[in-house]
Design brief:
Structural class: alpha/beta
Strand content: 15-25%
Number of helices: 8
Number of strands: 9
CATH superfamily of the largest domain: Zn peptidases
Number of domains: 2
Shape: globular
Order of helices and strands: HEHEHHEHHEEEHHEEE
CATH architecture of the largest domain: 3-Layer(aba) Sandwich
Radius of gyration: 21 Å
Distance between the termini: 40 Å
Length: 236
């Protein structure tokens, strides 16, 4: 059903036959209907709409689709409008909506709090790197921790990517978007867990103070790491 919205003319549709999983079919249709419209005129194409299949829960389908759209919107937002600070804002808005908390360690604070690798990756950008720590749920519930990579744009650093490989590097924060999408689903469903989401957010840029191939950095646990390629920043 995911390909149907792109193939059908505008209008209202219903599924003619019963499917084993009507909710999945409806979600597929909504996933295929997604469009990133933030920078486009309001008078876009007319929608293709699907009558909710029998046996599908409207609330369940919409909750999943809204979370999916939330994550895709973050990933599709260009890096000039979405950097480490905007990822922090997205996390804070979720926490505020559902009664969670967010702690952020930013800029030089990463060094004083012993997160040197995040600082090294992001120090060449004028957009301060940070560690975003979102927490939600009962202290007595089972703990689930998710870590999402939040590189808002990846030039490759001094080992610079060619233009063809850099074009879509706004999506290098897709791990962070997925982690926040997961958090949205968990918190909205009020699942019995103690959730923690960690997002190391930075922009891997080029400047005179960028980390270099051949540098030896000391990590949080005291292990030294020799940099072979600055485009392998995710490992740091």
């Amino acid at each position: 059903t995911g390909v149907l919205p792109g193939a059908l003319p505008p209008g209202d549709y219903r599924l003619a036959s019963t499917l084993p999983d009507p909710e999945l079919a409806a979600l597929g249709f909504l996933a295929g209907s997604y469009r990133f419209t933030r920078y486009k005129a309001a008078n876009g194409p007319k929608p293709k709409r699907l009558v909710l299949p029998e046996g599908a829960s409207k609330d369940e389908v919409l909750a999943l689709a809204e979370a999916l759209y939330f994550g895709r919107d973050l990933i599709n937002t260009p890096a000039n409008d979405l950097g480490p600070a905007e990822l922090e804002t997205a996390a804070r808005e979720l926490a505020n909506e559902f009664g969670g908390s967010v702690k952020v360690t930013e800029g030089s604070g990463l060094l004083s709090d012993n997160f040197p690798m995040i600082h090294a990756v992001g120090r060449a950008s004028d957009r301060a790197p940070r560690l975003i720590d979102l927490r939600w749920g009962s202290e007595h519930a089972a703990k689930v921790t998710v870590v999402g990579k939040g590189i808002s744009f990846d030039t490759g650093g001094l080992d610079i990517k060619p233009g063809s490989a850099m074009a879509l590097m706004k999506k290098d924060m897709g791990g962070a978007a997925s982690a926040l999408t997961f958090a949205l689903l968990v918190m909205r469903a009020k699942l019995p867990m103690r959730l923690r989401v960690l997002i190391p957010a930075a922009e891997n840029s080029i400047a005179g103070n960028a980390f270099r191939p051949g540098d030896v950095l000391t990590s949080r646990n005291g292990m030294t790491v020799e940099i072979g390629n600055t485009d392998a920043e995710g490992r740091l």
